[in-house]
Design a protein that fits this description.
Length: 581
């Protein structure tokens, strides 16, 4: 129960793993030969490409996931990075051929061919996106060179951040603990514990700030250089394309979030007053529990609460959670060498998922479990899709997770009659909403400014200053401007991927889109159930805007986002009233 079971993937880097690795390598060799030696009609050529992609998809995911999962719970493992490097070598085999095929697509009339081929028609959306992306490709040799150099540059810088933070010793009250453990102390009931943990965390970062700031600066500079060569307007425009999301949608959402900052400011100021602070909330009390629900939950209790909440929504969702818990798909507890945070790794080729968390017994940890299981449920739904429809864009990735988190939170609220206990659950939910709306806004502002300055090196001092300015702009006077967190860029792994820039606004999209969907569910639960699973299935097959349209939602208009934010504002108003009593 203390670790996940990965045996359905592999039991180690054993004979089965080695044989599958050889099989994947041979598949790539066959694919390279097929693309290089075009035979038959255009339909034969494109169908052949798609069939190879289908076969590779599941095997590559299994082979890649295993070492990645091993490393996430043991960053000191020496074999996992070796095999990830071997996989990268295999994936690089077809770079030139991928460029060749993508450029070939530019000359093809897909509408005409899709009328003559069911396979092409089925995957036309993917092929059209490949056509668009082909406009930004470098030459075959340049793509190969960049792929190889990226491993040594941004890939290595990213691994440096992961290793240094996962292994960072933190001296807390004379005892050495991990970074994950000290950050989890932010949820403790004792105010002196929260304050001391915050100060210990900031002090620990001083030992690694030079190398991690260099890592972040070099990653962003690499992104700027490669995007210039590819002809993208900016890192944000590239992210929007990858997210299958229109700029109008992002602008509408960010605009609505900016408009609602004063509401969150009122909540934070009320919480500051409740906790005895005069100049806004100090950063170390952002996650301070309030009310009278002074309880630390066991993992067994957390499972029970999550399953009850899920079953209150639907049998399928409840059965999924039961299956995940009983089959040990979850690695729940923090330990030395384990990465911080939480994630879900969907394995649709196995009709399974694996979830990592750092459970310490807080109410927030329960909601994190619900959140990650929501990702897993999303994976279960899309596992019935065709293999090339197993991936969804970043904004829609948070839809099911936020929805499931809301289900469990509302389930908890429905069981509580005592006002002080209700305050605890309601305010804990608001903590999460504030993170996903206001803190995400600060991260978006920070990353925007970071890219603006990344034509050259950006120092640790500049990063700390930009982060403080971003927090002030997003939180306004809700936080005490003398007690902020200048290192929030250092501990967030999402900044450290050259291929996933601006991995912040998708969380806000997920929260607000999920809140809007939950409001629809409350109006008509019975009809919503089937439509919702259809929506989750659709997330892999079309744009963000088209997915929303399937539920009669226009995400390019600010009105939808304001309506969703008003759902949060209702909680803010009730929380302020409860805190003032």
């Amino acid at each position: 129960m203390n670790t996940w079971d990965l045996s359905d993937l592999y039991s180690g880097f054993d004979e089965k793993y080695q044989n599958d690795l050889k099989k994947l390598s041979q598949l790539f060799d066959d694919y390279v030969s097929f693309i290089r030696n075009k035979k038959g009609s255009d339909i034969d050529y494109i169908e052949g490409h798609l069939k190879y992609q289908e076969e590779v998809s599941g095997l590559a995911r299994t082979l890649s996931s295993y070492p990645s999962l091993v490393m996430s719970t043991d960053v000191t493992n020496q074999d996992a990075p070796t095999y990830l490097a071997k996989l990268q070598q295999i994936f690089r085999k077809s770079i030139a051929e991928d460029v060749l095929f993508s450029r070939y697509l530019l000359e093809i009339d897909l509408d005409d061919l899709s009328s003559k081929s069911e396979l092409i028609k089925k995957y036309q959306f993917i092929l059209e996106r490949d056509q668009e992306e082909a406009k930004h490709l470098l030459s075959e040799k340049e793509e190969i060179m960049y792929s190889k150099l990226r491993e040594l540059s941004s890939g290595s810088w990213s691994r440096l951040q992961g290793l240094t933070t996962a292994n960072l010793p933190v001296m807390y009250r004379g005892k050495e603990i991990t970074l994950s453990e000290v950050r989890n102390l932010a949820y403790e009931h004792d105010p002196s514990v929260r304050k001391d943990a915050y100060e210990a965390e900031l002090k620990a970062y001083e030992a690694i700030e030079d190398q991690v700031s260099l890592a972040l600066s070099n990653i962003k500079r690499e992104v700027i250089v490669i995007n210039e060569f590819r002809g993208y307007e900016s890192a944000l425009s590239k992210t929007l394309f990858s997210s299958r999301m229109a700029k109008e949608t992002l602008n509408a959402m960010i605009g609505a979030m900016m408009d609602y900052r004063p509401q969150f400011e009122k909540y934070l100021q009320a919480k500051a007053k409740y906790l005895g602070h005069e100049n806004g909330l100090p950063f170390y009390d952002l996650f301070a529990p309030v009310g009278k629900l002074e309880k630390t939950y066991t993992y067994e209790e957390a499972q029970k609460i999550v399953k009850e909440g899920f079953y209150s929504y639907s049998k399928r969702l409840g059965d999924f959670a039961t299956k995940a818990f009983e089959n040990n798909w979850i690695d729940p507890f923090p330990k030395k060498g384990k990465r911080g945070g939480a994630f879900c790794s969907n394995q649709p080729q196995l009709k399974q998922s694996r979830i990592m968390s750092n459970f310490t017994g807080s109410l927030s940890d329960i909601l994190t479990l619900a959140h990650e299981l929501g990702h897993g449920y999303h994976g279960e739904v899309i596992s019935n899709n065709d293999p090339l429809f197993w991936n969804y864009p970043m904004p829609l990735a948070e839809t099911a997770s936020i929805f499931c988190e809301t289900i469990v939170n509302n389930h908890l609220l429905s069981m509580i009659t005592d006002p002080n206990e209700r305050l605890s659950v309601l305010e804990n939910s608001l903590q999460g909403d504030t993170q996903v709306i206001i803190d995400i806004l600060s991260r978006f502002i920070f990353e925007t400014h970071l890219f603006e300055k990344s034509e050259g090196p950006v120092s640790k001092h500049q990063m700390k200053s930009m982060m403080l300015d971003a927090q002030k702009e997003a939180y306004q006077k809700g936080l005490d401007h003398e007690v902020l967190h200048p290192y929030m860029w250092l501990n967030k792994g999402h900044y450290y991927s050259a291929g996933l820039n601006f991995y912040n606004f998708p969380y806000a999209f997920g929260l607000l889109f999920g809140k809007g969907l939950y409001a629809q569910y409350l109006k008509n639960p019975e009809s919503f159930l089937k439509s919702y699973d259809d929506l989750l299935s659709l997330t892999t097959k079309t744009s963000v805007e088209e997915v929303a349209k399937s539920m009669n939602i226009d995400v390019t208009k600010k009105d939808f986002w304001l309506d969703s934010l008003e759902q949060v504002n209702k909680d803010i108003k009730e929380t302020i009233v409860l805190m003032s009593k």
